[in-house]
Specification:
The complex is a heterodimer. In chain A, 26% of the residues lie in helices and 19% in strands. In chain A, strand 10, helix 7 and strand 11 form a beta-alpha-beta unit. The relative contact order of chain A is 0.13. Chain B is of the alpha+beta class. Chain B is globular and about 45 Å long. The chains are: A alpha/beta, B alpha+beta. Chains A and B meet through strand 9, helix 6 and helix 7 of A and strand 1, strand 2, strand 3, strand 4 and strand 5 of B.
Chain lengths: 394, 70
């Protein structure tokens, strides 16, 4: 086991290629001498005390303790065909969901509206999103959240064995920023950009935060079939510099635009500025999917926000993604809302602004893309970090 | 078998390509009409065959996708 750092646990995640836990277990043993137990056999995270690794069969991922030479053996195996697809350090748990955030008071007065609504000018726009359908493909939605009483909400789960109910919280947060209220029933500042839009909540990530291309593509297809003008996707997977973008998602992005649906996706959070700028992840790195980076309330690029590294795979716009207050999946009091950060939070702000533009100008598809880029406020930041700048409500 | 996603050529109804995909060894999971996409699983060795079928534009292995970590 390696030494833990601020962002990693010292353990490793091994992405497994197919559904056969038994074959994967044999491969881990043969390649690196790692003894594993599978969740299909009742193993849990606690089993790591007695074996070297646990295979999460349903998501096709193993969590393993490995020495450096074992990690090297796994990485070599990942380059070759076989059950081992990818090896990466396991991130600290709160990082995957909601990174712990210091309880900083926003420099902006948030007594009435979040700083995010003010930064994109939503609070001074006459557009509301009324009549526009916005799909958020994420971990689901807390359908009985009091702040959404009386709203039009359609839901669909694309995760086998899980209802649309958001046991994670991330999906409910994103839906809040894109389409939540301006005067929340449970109190606090208004936090939703397109507060009268129709909400299409598609669950394409499990309650543990995992999904696959198949479920996401099914969710996009569902949103298109339902005539959603905007699809917000705060999800992705990190890519190495120089990795070609997906031809499938690029085709899907183009077909969606031609049918009047704009797909907006998170650029990713793998940068560690100022030392490291990571490339825009999959699928936001497709040219026909709008990639969103994150800024803070001082209009600075967030330290984690991915940047334009390769010829293709650019950041297109930025939006508020630090210290973002929105709805959460709790049942009472403080747990109804939460402050978190990420390009995940910036993305639904852009989806909300797109819904306002769609309503204001009856713009769809490529025209909507152009309206977003045209009206974005230039920030004096590198275009490689901020694209056209901070999106603005009409 | 590995999870795959297939795009069909512009203007082709995905359901018309499904029989050929199945003959080539693909187990079809979903036919996404609005997108012109078919998803499912296929033997690793069959992917090249799928690519060459009439009406097929691209074939890719599906990725694992999740919440962006910070």
């Amino acid at each position: 086991m390696s030494e833990p750092t601020d962002t990693t646990t010292g353990r490793y995640l091994v992405l497994l290629q197919d559904g056969s836990a038994a074959a994967s277990a044999r491969e881990l043993s043969n390649v690196a001498g790692i003894r594993t137990a599978s969740t299909l056999e009742g193993a849990t995270a606690e089993s790591l005390g007695t074996v070297d690794g646990v295979i999460y069969a349903n998501v096709g991922v193993a969590v393993v303790n490995a020495q450096p030479d074992q990690v090297n053996a796994l990485a070599t195996a990942a380059e070759a065909p076989g059950p081992i697809a990818l090896v990466e350090p396991e991130r600290v748990v709160q990082a995957l969901t909601a990174p712990a955030q210091e309880a900083v008071e926003a420099a902006v007065d948030e007594s009435v509206f979040t700083w995010g609504l003010q930064a994109v000018g939503a609070n001074i726009s006459t557009a509301t999103g009324k009549g526009i359908r916005v799909a958020v493909l994420d971990t689901g939605f807390t359908v009985n959240h009091p702040d959404f009483a009386g709203r039009t909400v359609l839901t669909q789960s694309f995760i086998t064995g899980e209802t649309v109910d958001d046991a994670h919280g991330h999906g409910t947060h994103c839906i809040g920023s894109a389409t939540g209220p301006r005067k929340p029933a449970s109190g606090g500042p208004g936090y939703g950009v397109a507060y009268e839009a129709d909400i299409y909540a598609g669950k394409v990530l499990s309650n543990a935060g995992f999904g696959s291309d198949g479920g996401i593509l099914a969710g996009i297809d569902w949103a298109l079939t339902n005539g959603c003008a905007v699809i917000s996707m705060s999800l992705g997977s990190a890519v190495r510099p120089g990795t070609p973008h997906s031809q499938i998602y690029e085709t899907v992005g183009q077909r969606a635009l031609s049918k009047g649906t704009l797909i907006v996706a998170a650029a990713g959070n793998e940068s560690r500025r100022p030392d490291k700028i990571a490339p825009v992840g999959h699928p936001a790195n497709c040219p026909s999917i709008l990639a969103v980076g994150a800024i803070d309330d001082q209009r600075a690029v967030a330290f984690f926000s991915c940047g334009t590294v390769d010829t293709v795979g650019q950041v297109d716009v930025v939006a508020p993604g630090v210290n973002v207050y929105s709805s959460w999946n709790g049942k009472t009091g403080d747990s109804l809302h939460k402050r978190i950060q990420g390009t995940s939070m910036a993305t639904p702000h852009v989806a909300g602004v797109a819904a306002l533009l769609a309503q204001q100008y009856n713009a769809r598809g490529w025209e909507l893309w152009a309206r977003l880029m045209q009206s974005a406020r230039r920030l004096g930041l590198p275009a490689t970090d901020a694209g056209a700048g901070l999106v603005q409500a009409p | 078998m590995v999870p795959v996603a297939v795009t069909v050529t512009d203007g082709v109804a995905p359901s018309t390509v499904v029989p050929a995909l199945e003959r080539a060894g693909m187990a079809v999971d979903r036919v996404l009409d609005a997108l012109g996409v078919v998803t499912g699983t296929a033997p690793e060795g069959a992917i090249a065959t799928l690519c060459d079928l009439p009406g097929v534009s691209h074939v890719e292995r599906q990725r694992q996708v999740g919440l962006p970590g910070v």
